[in-house]
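Entry 14. Ran structure prediction on the chain below.
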Amino acid sequence: MSFMAHMLYYLECTNFHMLFWKGEIFILNQ
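Output, structure tokens:
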């Protein structure tokens, strides 16, 4: 896998994780 592809994959995973984490916080604050 090329460096750029690896970085894009990493960024997408991080963004997904952050959305999931924020969703958890939102649910817990309900």
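The helical segments are 3-28. Will compare against last week's run tomorrow.
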